[in-house]
Amino acid sequence: MKTRSFTVIVYKEEDMYIAECPEVGTVDQGETIEKAVAGLKEATRFYLEEFPLPEAISRLAH
Predict the structure, then answer these.
(1) How far, rounded to the nearest angstrom, does the alpha carbon of residue 28 sit from its chain's CA centroid?
(2) What is the pTM of this model?
């Protein structure tokens, strides 16, 4: 399995943390930063299984 690195932006809205991956467009939330990031990783992995990034974008993300 190929390992890729992506940006994660985390911010708080009211009582939840929101985690976003701008390169892919996935978003998740959690009661803690750790839960939000873990959910984002899973959501991003599932998304990329269905909709792989073109190779050129993949290389830029490193």
Answers:
(1) 8
(2) 0.81
